[in-house]
Fold this sequence. Notes:
The chain is an alpha+beta fold. It has a single domain (2-141), classed as hpI Integrase, Chain A (Orthogonal Bundle), CATH 1.10.443. The protein is 38% helix and 10% strand. It has seven helices and four strands; from the N terminus they run H-H-E-E-E-E-H-H-H-H-H. The strands form two sheets. A two-stranded antiparallel sheet has the order 1-2. A hairpin with a 4-residue loop joins strand 1 and strand 2. Helix 1 (2-8) packs parallel to helix 4 and helix 4 (86-99) runs antiparallel to helix 5 (104-111).
Amino acid sequence: MAALLYGAGLRLFECLQLRIKDVDFGSGQIVVRAAKGNNEWIFPATRIYRDHVTGERRRHHLDESVLQRAVKEAVRRARINKPVSCHTFRHSFATHLLEDGYDIRTVQELLGHKDVSTTMVYCHILNKDWAGVRSPMDKVISVPSEPSPEIDRKDRL
Length: 157
């Protein structure tokens, strides 16, 4: 989930509310529907509840506190002495795209901001064509063929 926050620049709830039909693995795209608001969840809650109006049994998406606690714990284990939250990944996504030469309007569009001034709060302005935008997460991910023996399994995110 943290990789999605950074790799796609998603807001916390955009990530939590992703549905299976929102992910196109063939083209490597995620469709964010109801960006700041509005159920086939990719990250479902562990508990099932009964809708008090219809009486139907349902499952909601994972609660945001689960990911927030995981990020907080990862920051503590990494001994990072700076404030880091789930939203930090979104800022990093925007900053790294701009550092890689993507234009501010492209980043604005990818972040779903209505006004470029909101995007400018995130980072500095650079100009370049946005065709072929690649996620900065692509540079970070390298799946080892075998786990490193010096890294304990429980220390991985």
